[in-house]
Amino acid sequence: MAAVPAIAIRDIRKKYASGFEALAGIDLDVAPGEIFALLGPNGAGKTTLISIICGIVTASSGSVSANGYDTIRDYRMARKQIGLVPQELNIDSFETVWNTTCFSRGLFGKSPDPVYIEQLLRDLSLWEKRDNKLITLSGGMKRRVMIAKALSHQPRILFLDEPTAGVDVELRRDMWRMVRKLQSTGVTIILTTHYIEEAEEMADRIGVINNGRIILVEDKSKLMQKLGKTQLLLKIQHPLSILPAELSAWDLTLSDDGTELTYTYDSQADGTGIPTLIRELDSIGVEVRGLQTKQSSLEDIFVNLVRSSS
Question: One Pfam family, short name please (predicted)?
């Protein structure tokens, strides 16, 4: 029997009174315990989709369930499953760190658990600040409090909407350490980020959204294999003015200054063709003085996908 998806989204649409269609039929399953990165340019629909799942925005049509609970029919149970760290700082400036975190736990009907709250604050390097009023904290510390609030009721699904935008390296490192710890306990994490290297580092699967549509969902490793390119950079001893006709059959580009050839090839293929290319260059008198390989990053793939779908 197949496991119930942590998040099941079916034909979600959101159209505003102005006629703008923010989401145009989203279908997506997120598996229990996975880290799913949702990538897309500004205005693609990422935050709208997360807000619908979390019950903050009402969809025009379609359905969403969280761990089997419909977010409309079983709103209270569905909402208990979810923790949300939004982009915006939304905190009571004159409350203490400890009281804010405990209050958030109580909002979800959870009984007090000072032992859990203490460990949570320690994990987020907030324990020494527990009696501080939020107005006295730095921006990075306030962001940590937002994370503590989202985790206060021990949700099984955690949404991180641009959680590390504008924060310091230390907080980013602490957050990813906590994300891995949460995943190890079976928590499902859905992440949106502008730092694509974070998605490349952390995610199990990648989804790309653009113009309100999911244009791709793929295992990260498979995505890198299928859409990533491997390039060989060949430094030329004597600059070329044009690409020789004898090389027209090869996927080669010549740099503007004529000192470098770039050969793009499929690293997963049976043969790369590199030895044959080197011999071909030698036979026409093109002397190579250096070689360097370059692999596409997730950012390269993302940019190309968005460009092709726009």
Answer: ABC_tran
The 10s digit of each residue's pLDDT in 94-130 is 899 999 999 999 998 899 999 999 999 998 889 999 9
Q: Hey, what CATH class is 7-225 in?
A: alpha beta
What is the separation, in whole angstroms, between the first and last Cα of the chain?
39
CATH number belonging to the domain at 230-296, selected among 3.40.1000, 3.40.50, 3.30.70, 3.30.2220? 3.30.70
- Helix residue ranges, H only, 81-195: 97-107, 114-123, 139-151, 169-184
How confident is the prediction for the chain on average, in pLDDT? Answer: 86
pTM assigned to the model: 0.74
Structural contact between residues 15 and 22, judged by C-beta atoms closer than 8 angstroms: yes
Of the candidates 252, 169, 192, 237, the one whose C-alpha atom is nearest the C-alpha of residue 45 is 192
Q: What phi and psi values does residue 263 have, to the nearest 5 degrees? A: -110, 120
Cβ(71)–Cβ(53) under 8 Å? yes
**111, 131, 136: which is closest to 121 by C-alpha?**
131
Order of strands, sheet of 260-265, starting from the edge strand that comes earlier in the sequence? 252-254, 260-265, 230-236, 288-295
Half-sphere exposure of 108 (CA within 13 A, CB side): 23
Q: Which residue has the tokens 């390039």?
A: 231
The structural domains of the chain, with segments of one domain joined by +, span 7-225, 230-296
Predicted confidence at residue 295, as pLDDT, reads 64
Taken in order 38, 43, 47, 53, the sign of the CA dihedral is negative
CA distance 85 to 179: 12
Cα(99)–Cα(131) distance, integer angstroms: 8
